[in-house]
Design a protein that fits this description.
The structure is a single chain. By secondary structure, the protein is α/β, with parallel strands linked by helices. The chain has a single domain, classed as TIM Barrel, CATH 3.20.20.70. The chain contains 8 helices and 8 strands, in the order E-H-E-H-E-E-H-E-H-E-H-E-H-E-H-H. Helix 1 packs across helix 8.
Length: about 210
Amino acid sequence: MKYIEKLHYITHDIPNLTHLEQAQKACEAGAKWIQYRCLSKADDALLADINSIAEICDDWGTTLIVTNHIHLNGKADIQGFHIEDFDADFIALRKKVGDDITLGGSANTIENIIRLANEGADYVGFGPFSTTETKPNDYPLLGLEDYQNAVKKLKGLNLNLPILAVGGIKIYDVEALMQTGIYGIAVSGAINFTDDLNEAYNDFYNAVKP
């Protein structure tokens, strides 16, 4: 089974920090998993960003995951992709990228999660838990019971897929979420929109680790 970090830090298009600056600050704070999420740039600009962030990640021993943009596989030092399309065919995606690349998916229902588990995803981001400024959507918000049920259902089916809660999670939500039995947390806004990214990252890191 591939290594999956318990705290996924996600970069975002924000006014005061570039993706590169976000990645640098996150690595300095100790991030071991960075998901580069940029849906606003053309391929040349994406690759320029990714190559620069990959150098930083290499220096710090940090895993670099790219949101969507799977067509860039092999063009930069990318360890994996997170695919946000709930209907993506992960069997086809796995054939395309091979076994070494990490593939994560997004889900809003237990049925979504089961399909991802059966199609060979390496982890799933299950959400949204709360309203989020960084990724507006109309999907139903999930409660603690939804996370408990998902963990229970996978165990009952003997499916081993790390579930990470995602979407508008604040530091005070983490303890209760982790008690549902999920694997970890993915965070963007609650770290990026703070005065001290280092402190915010470490608060989440300490809350997620057992």
